[in-house]
C-alpha cells in the first residue's frame, strides 16, 4: 500500500469497503487518476467482510435498480479477468419460490419487467425447483422462478480486485488512516483532516458505510442511516450439497440459503429486526461480531428450517450476527450533499453493498466527473432527506425493526410502512380521520389514501394485486370529482417563497417556461439539467414583482430547494423560505366547484374574472386565503393555500356548504386515477432525470426563444430540431375493464416490445385501467403510427389489447377546466 499521505487530491473517498473501492475504480476508469481512498482500519473491515456475497436480483421494481444490478453483475463476472485478482465469482443460478397466489402475481409482474432489462428468468414447476435444489421442501410451492445467470462472489476478494483496478490507474489507498472531520470553507468541502495530516481536495466522498451518519453529522450533513443486527447460520457439512448448489431466497420465511464449505448458510431478514447502537457506531469496531440473541431468533430459524428440514438436524458450525446499515425508505443515500458543496455521499445500501456497489460506484463517478447522473436518481438522491425529519434517534429506533423484512418479503402496490408514523400531519388530520380516511405515508407525510363510510371501516382487509375492499369507495370519490365536487387535503405539497431583487432572474434561469409574467399569473414549467434531463416539474406563481411561490410534490421537496440554492449566482440576492409547515392546502374540484366556492366567498369567481392559471387572495367565510385556479385532476377548481391557524375552520365551512352539492372527501388513490385519465406527468414517478420534456410530451412548457435562455436550453433545442422523437410518452387504456395496472407492465406495438408503463391506476370514467409510459420505435413515432398501431399491454404474463394516445383520452381540449 502507498505510505506517503499526499497534501492534495482531486477526490478523497472516506471508506475502504465495497462502495469506496467501487467509486475509486470507476473514477479512475473515467480518467480521474488523482484519487485517494482513506480506510480507518483495513479494506473491507466494516461490513463488507461479512456480507453474504449473493449477486441475485430478487424482484426489482424500477429501471434504476435493474440498470445498476445488471451493470454490477456483469462487472463482477469479468473482474477477475480484468485485474488478475480472484473474486470467487460463481454462476450457480438462483431460485425464488412462490407459495401464495399473491406472490405468484407479484413475481410474474416483476420478472416480465426484469427480462426487459436483460435479466434472464424462467418460471418453473415445484418439481423442477426441487431438482435444482434437492435439499429444499417445495411441497407448498405453487410455482417457482429460476434465474440461471445469477450467482455469488467473495466480498473481500471482489473488493480487493476493485482496489487493484483503481490502483493500476493511479488511485492511492491508505489503510489505518482515520478521518476526524471534513474541512469546510464558504459552505464547501475543501479537504479532510486525518490522524496523519490534512489532505485538501476538490471533492470529498463519504462512503463509510454505517459510520457515514456520524461522519456527515460532524460536517452538518443529515444522513438518516441506522445499523441493524443481521444474522446467518452455517451448518456442518450436509448430504446433497455441492459447490454448484443454486441460491434460494424465500420471502415466505424471510430467509436465504446457499452452500458454504459443504454446509448450508441460512441467512435471515426477520420481521422484528434489532437496531444496533442507535446513538453512535463505535469507531474501533473492526471485523467485529455481535453476540447473537438466540431467544429472539429461534422462532425465525425454525421457520427457515421448514424450507430445508434437513438443516434442522445438522450441526451448527457458526451462528453469526453482524451489523448492516439501512435507510428509512430502503433506498440508498447517493449524490451531492445538499448542505455542503463539493461533498458527495454513497451510503445506505441496505445490505446490498456487494450487489449494488458497482452500479452505485459507476453512477456517482459519472455524476462527479460529468455533472449529472446517468441513471434515474429520484429514488436514491440523498437530497430527499434534506429536512432532517427522519434522523432522530426515536425515529430510527422505531423504523429499523420493520426494514429487514420489508426489503425481503412480499410487496403490494399500495402498501406503506407501519412504523414511525405520524411524522408529518396536516392541520386537518383529525378531521380527515373522523371522516373515514385511511392514511398512507410518503416522505413522512400522512396522506389520506381513500375514505371509508365510517372510521371503523378505514382498514385494509387483505393486501392484494387485485381489487381490494376500498376499491368501490375510491370509485365513488372519482365519480364525485367528475360529476359533482370533491375536497382534498394536499398540504403535503412543498411550498417555497422565493423573493428578493434577483428572484426572477434565478427562477428564469432554472425554468424552461417563461416565468417573468404579471403578478397573479401561475406558470407550469419543467426544470432540466445541462443535458436536458428533468430535475423538476412544478408551478411558479408570481405574487409580486420580486416575490414568487414555487409549489412541487412532497417527493421532490429537498431536491427542489437544493436546486434553487445551487443556482443562485454570485452577487445575487435571493431568499428561499420553506413555508410548507404553515400552509394547509385545500383543493376543491369538480363541475360544481364554482357553485360551492361562490357560496362561501363574495369574490367574483367567474371564468372572466378569475381565469385558469391565475391566483389571488379571496375571502372564504371569515378568512382571507390565497386561491390558485389550477388543477391536477382535470376538472374546474381551486387550490386554496390556507394558513394553518384557521385551516380547520375553512375546511368545516367548505364541508358544510358543500352538502347540497354532494361534496366528498377524496384521497391519493383518486388523485392518481384522475390525473392519469388526463395523462398529467409527475417528476419522480413517471419522468426522471434521464427523460426530457420534448419526449415526455411537455414541449408546450418549454420556451426555447425566451430572453436569456435557461439551463439546458441548447440540449432541448437540439432534441427539438431532430424532429419527431422515436421515443415518446403515451397514454394507454386497457380495452378489457378487468385487469389492473400499477406500473412496469410491458408495452407492445404490432407484437414488438417497445417500452413499459411508468405508472397506472384505474380510470373509472374511461372504464378501464389507464397508465402512461414511454414507447420507443425504430422510426419517428408519429401520430399515425400511434393511432393505427396494434397496441397491447402485458399484465402478469397476459397481453391485453389497449388504446394508445398522444393526447389525453379524457377531455383532450381541456374544456372542463377552462369553463
UniProtKB/TrEMBL annotation:
Has the keyword Magnesium been applied to this entry?
A: no
Q: Which GO terms describe its molecular function?
A: oxidoreductase activity
InterPro entries for the chain: FAD-dep_OxRdtase, FAD/NAD-bd_sf, FAO_M, GcvT/YgfZ/DmdA, GcvT/YgfZ_C, GcvT_C, GCVT_N, TrmE/GcvT-like
Aminomethyltransferase C-terminal domain segment(s)? 728-811
Identify the stretch annotated as signal peptide in this record.
Answer: none
Q: A Pfam family name for this chain? A: DAO
Q: Which UniProt keywords apply?
A: Oxidoreductase
**Hey, which family's this protein in?**
Belongs to the GcvT family.
Name the chain's protein: FAD-dependent oxidoreductase
Native source organism of the sequence: Thalassovita mangrovi
Amino acid at each position: 500500500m502507498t505510505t506517503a499521505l499526499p497534501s492534495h487530491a482531486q477526490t478523497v473517498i472516506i471508506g475502504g469497503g465495497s462502495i469506496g473501492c467501487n467509486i475509486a475504480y470507476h473514477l479512475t476508469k473515467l480518467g480521474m487518476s488523482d484519487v485517494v481512498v482513506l480506510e480507518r482500519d483495513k479494506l473491507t473491515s466494516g461490513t463488507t467482510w461479512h456480507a453474504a456475497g449473493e449477486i441475485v436480483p430478487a424482484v426489482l421494481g424500477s429501471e434504476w435498480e435493474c440498470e445498476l444490478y445488471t451493470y454490477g453483475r456483469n462487472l463482477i463476472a469479468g473482474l477477475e479477468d480484468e485485474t488478475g485478482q480472484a473474486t470467487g465469482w460463481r454462476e450457480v443460478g438462483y431460485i425464488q419460490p412462490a407459495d401464495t397466489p399473491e406472490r405468484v402475481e407479484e413475481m410474474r409482474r416483476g420478472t416480465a419487467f426484469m427480462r426487459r432489462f436483460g435479466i434472464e428468468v424462467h418460471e418453473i414447476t415445484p418439481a423442477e425447483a426441487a431438482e435444482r435444489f434437492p435439499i429444499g421442501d417445495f411441497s407448498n410451492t405453487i410455482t417457482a422462478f429460476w434465474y440461471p445467470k445469477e450467482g455469488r462472489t467473495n466480498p473481500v476478494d471482489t473488493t480487493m480486485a476493485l482496489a487493484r483496478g483503481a490502483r493500476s490507474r493511479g488511485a492511492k489507498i491508505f489503510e489505518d488512516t482515520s478521518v476526524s472531520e471534513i474541512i469546510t470553507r464558504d459552505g464547501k468541502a475543501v479537504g479532510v483532516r486525518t490522524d496523519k495530516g490534512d489532505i485538501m481536495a476538490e471533492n470529498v466522498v463519504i462512503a463509510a458505510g454505517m459510520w457515514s451518519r456520524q461522519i456527515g453529522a460532524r460536517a452538518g450533513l443529515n444522513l438518516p442511516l441506522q445499523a441493524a443486527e443481521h444474522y446467518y447460520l452455517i451448518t456442518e457439512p450436509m448430504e446433497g450439497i455441492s459447490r454448484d448448489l443454486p441460491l434460494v431466497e424465500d420471502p415466505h420465511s424471510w430467509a436465504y440459503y446457499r452452500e458454504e464449505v459443504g454446509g448450508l448458510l441460512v441467512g435471515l431478514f426477520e420481521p422484528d429486526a434489532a437496531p444496533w447502537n442507535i446513538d453512535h457506531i463505535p469507531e474501533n469496531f473492526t471485523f467485529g461480531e455481535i453476540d447473537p440473541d438466540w431467544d429472539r431468533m429461534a422462532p425465525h430459524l425454525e421457520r427457515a428450517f421448514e424450507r430445508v428440514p434437513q438443516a434442522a438436524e445438522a450441526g451448527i458450525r457458526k451462528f453469526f450476527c453482524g451489523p448492516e446499515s439501512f435507510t428509512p425508505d430502503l433506498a440508498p443515500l447517493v449524490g451531492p450533499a445538499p448542505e455542503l458543496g463539493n461533498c458527495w455521499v454513497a451510503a445506505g445500501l441496505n445490505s446490498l453493498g456487494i450487489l449494488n456497489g458497482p452500479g452505485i460506484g459507476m453512477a456517482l463517478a459519472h455524476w462527479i466527473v460529468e455533472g449529472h447522473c446517468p441513471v434515474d436518481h429520484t429514488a436514491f438522491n440523498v437530497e430527499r432527506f434534506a429536512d432532517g425529519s427522519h434522523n432522530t434517534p426515536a425515529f430510527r429506533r422505531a423504523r429499523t425493526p420493520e426494514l429487514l423484512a420489508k426489503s425481503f418479503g412480499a410487496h403490494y402496490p399500495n402498501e406503506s410502512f407501519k412504523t414511525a408514523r405520524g411524522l408529518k400531519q396536516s392541520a386537518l388530520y383529525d378531521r380527515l380521520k373522523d371522516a373515514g380516511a385511511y392514511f398512507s405515508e410518503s416522505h413522512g407525510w400522512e396522506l389520506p389514501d381513500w375514505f371509508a363510510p365510517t372510521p371503523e371501516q378505514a382498514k385494509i382487509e387483505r393486501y392484494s394485486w387485485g381489487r381490494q375492499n376500498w376499491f368501490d369507495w375510491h370509485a365513488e370519490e372519482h365519480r364525485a370529482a367528475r360529476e359533482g365536487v370533491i375536497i382534498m387535503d394536499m398540504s403535503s405539497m412543498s411550498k417555497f417563497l422565493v423573493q428578493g431583487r434577483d428572484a426572477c432572474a434565478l427562477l428564469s434561469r432554472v425554468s424552461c417556461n417563461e416565468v417573468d409574467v404579471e403578478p397573479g399569473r401561475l406558470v407550469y414549467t419543467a426544470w432540466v439539467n445541462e443535458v436536458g434531463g428533468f430535475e423538476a416539474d412544478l408551478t411558479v406563481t408570481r405574487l409580486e414583482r420580486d416575490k414568487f411561490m414555487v409549489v412541487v410534490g412532497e417527493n421532490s421537496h429537498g431536491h427542489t430547494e437544493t436546486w434553487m440554492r445551487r443556482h443562485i449566482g454570485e452577487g445575487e440576492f435571493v431568499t428561499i423560505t420553506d413555508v410548507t409547515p404553515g400552509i394547509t392546502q385545500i383543493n376543491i374540484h369538480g363541475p360544481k366547484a364554482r357553485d360551492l366556492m361562490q357560496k362561501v366567498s363574495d369574490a367574483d369567481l367567474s371564468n372572466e374574472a378569475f381565469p385558469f392559471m391565475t391566483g389571488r387572495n379571496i375571502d372564504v367565510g371569515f378568512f382571507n386565503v390565497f386561491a390558485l385556479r389550477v388543477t391536477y385532476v382535470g376538472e374546474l377548481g381551486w387550490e386554496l393555500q390556507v394558513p394553518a391557524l384557521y385551516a380547520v375552520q375553512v375546511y368545516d365551512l367548505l364541508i358544510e356548504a358543500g352538502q347540497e352539492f354532494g361534496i366528498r372527501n377524496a384521497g391519493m388513490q383518486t388523485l392518481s386515477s384522475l390525473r392519469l385519465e388526463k395523462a398529467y406527468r409527475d417528476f419522480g414517478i413517471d419522468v426522471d432525470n434521464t427523460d426530457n420534456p420534448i419526449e415526455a410530451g411537455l414541449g408546450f412548457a418549454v420556451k426555447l426563444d425566451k430572453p436569456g435562455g435557461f439551463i439546458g436550453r441548447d440540449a432541448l433545442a437540439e432534441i427539438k430540431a431532430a424532429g419527431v422523437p422515436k421515443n415518446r410518452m403515451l397514454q394507454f387504456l386497457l380495452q378489457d375493464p378487468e385487469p389492473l395496472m400499477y406500473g412496469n407492465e410491458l408495452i407492445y406495438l404490432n407484437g414488438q416490445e417497445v417500452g413499459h408503463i411508468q405508472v397506472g391506476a384505474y380510470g373509472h370514467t374511461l372504464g378501464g385501467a389507464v397508465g402512461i409510459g414511454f414507447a420507443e420505435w425504430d422510426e419517428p413515432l408519429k401520430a399515425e403510427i400511434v393511432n393505427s398501431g396494434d397496441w397491447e399491454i402485458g399484465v402478469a404474463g397476459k397481453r391485453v389489447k389497449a388504446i394508445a394516445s398522444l393526447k389525453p383520452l379524457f377531455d383532450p381540449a381541456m374544456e372542463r377546466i377552462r369553463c
